[in-house]
Amino acid sequence: MKKTLLSITLILLSLSAFSQKPAGDPKGGISADMLRQISAAYEGNAADKALRNALNSTPINTLAVSADKIAMIDTHFSNEVKTLGRTDQKSSGRCWLFTGLNVLRARMNQKHDLGAFTFSQNYLFFYDQLEKANLFLQGVIDTRNLPMEDRTVDWLFAHPIGDGGQFTGVSNLVMKYGVVPADVMPETLNANNTSQMRAQITNKLREDGLRLREAKPKDVQALKVQMLGEIYRMLALCLGVPPTEFTWARYNGKGEFVSEKTYTPKSFYQEFIGEDLENNYIMVMNNPAVPYNKVYEIEYDRHVYDGQNWVYLNLPIERIKEMAIASIKDNTALYFSCDVGKFLDRKRGIADLGNFDYESLMGVTFGMDKKERILTHASGSTHAMTLIAVDIKEGVPVKWMVENSWGAATGYKGNIIMTDEWFNEYMFRLVVEKKYVPADIMALMAQKPVMLPSWDPMFAPEE
Q1: Domain layout of the chain by residue ranges
Q2: pLDDT of residue 334
Q3: 112 an active-site residue?
Q4: Is 238 a catalytic residue?
Q5: Residue 264: which of 249, 243, 240 has the closest Cα?
């Protein structure tokens, strides 16, 4: 009898356990029972209804603004680099170019006491687009014996040209083509609004790429030159013809005439800046998703075919801050990039982890750390700016400031102020002059780089 009762008890427990299993579809879909369980998460109570009513007509990021953070942050900085006004990339992805030239502009002003001076972004953008067209066409030639479904070939045709880039584009283009003042080759409508021009050039390059794959080996280089001639014409029509020589009148910071002289773009660069950009800087990254103290290289991640791939040293954030502080204290601005859109109050120009409270609004938690965000494509470097200031209290940085390229009317006087906590989570890349790099870090640069594929999501161009 006892055995019979025990058996019945075990059967009832087994049936009870079975009935409590999730009501999921064994094939992985959402069954009717499972949907009932899921839908119970929305209670439809007064609080839910109030939130739903608000979200029906108000953007999520507006409702998520934290009332605790509406006051303006302290704008004093213990160390700040003197710069020359804010620039505006408008509806283009040229932040990398504006940032690089703004770093050089600050350096030029320190040496020569300029007035309201700006380099021509349009001049270098013309050659950037021409060089990227050549990079694509030559890449097609180099891979023409591989099938179209090969990952590298597919990546090339998916990304024949674009506005975005990074510092090696600045260094290679400047050293090859020089620079000119903004009034020598000013911005055009298509320089400020690049999407339509880019669409036409992209279509032409893809068509040209197919022709190169089908051409006889002896004909491909001559055919490439002909194709680049057509791209040059399209660029000239949209951006203007780059000058080979120009006359420039120089004024000092008081607006007083200093001199007038005729230059080539390269002689202008040599006279007013003269640095070896390709060998005088290193790029460092804070990417906890891959090992620190290793050097990495990104295949096909360059602007000029005969230039340099993107090479960087991955470091803990504290070592990067050490170099950034040394540079700023010496009145030297830095090329900087980050995931700019995260927790950014655009109106005030403040990047602070407490700006938006999405968790309270949505009733969920967001707990990924920096490594997890990178691995899941939730975060990555999206925008380059010029790092110009740090505020140090009791030996510790508490906030940073970058000069942006969204115009003087955006953010805080055209700048963005970042709390140090935000800097830790969303800062990714920094370009540092070698004289600010400690010896132990320079020694790490001697490693043979680990080659990463061009489609690695962490290394999309900055726009």
Answers
A1: 79-459
A2: 97
A3: no
A4: no
A5: 243
Catalytic residue among 172, 286, 383, 415: 383
CA pair distance 341, 318, nearest whole angstrom: 23
Report residue 248's pLDDT band, with 50, 70 and 90 as the boundaries: very high
203 is catalytic: no
Its pTM stands at: 0.89
Are residues 138 and 156 in contact, defined by beta-carbon separation less than 8 angstroms?
A: no
Question: Tell me, what's the pLDDT at 12?
Answer: 45
Residue 144, both tokens: 């023409």
Q: What pairs with residue 151 in β-bridges?
A: none
- State which amino acid sits at residue 130: L
In DSSP terms, 431 is beta-bridged to 283, 335
Q: Among residues 381, 219, 359, which one has the least CA distance to residue 287?
A: 381
Contact 85, 386 (CB under 8 A): no
Number of alpha carbons in the 13 Å side-chain half-sphere of residue 7: 4
Just give the CATH number of 79-459. 3.90.70.10
CB atoms within 10 A of CB 236: 13
Q: Give the tens place of pLDDT for each residue, 102-117.
A: 999 998 988 898 878 9
**What's the pLDDT at 459?**
67
Q: What's the pLDDT score for residue 70?
A: 85
> Of 111, 122, 118, 186, nearest to 408 (Cα)?
118
CA distance 283 to 301: 14
Catalytic residue among 122, 314, 404, 415: 404
CB of 274 closer than 8 Å to CB of 114: no
Distance CA 449, CA 455 (A): 17
Which of 95, 159, 172, 355 is catalytic? The answer is 95
Note the pLDDT tens digit of each residue in 430-447. Answer: 999 999 999 999 999 999
Q: How many CA atoms lie within 13 A of 69 on its CB side?
A: 18
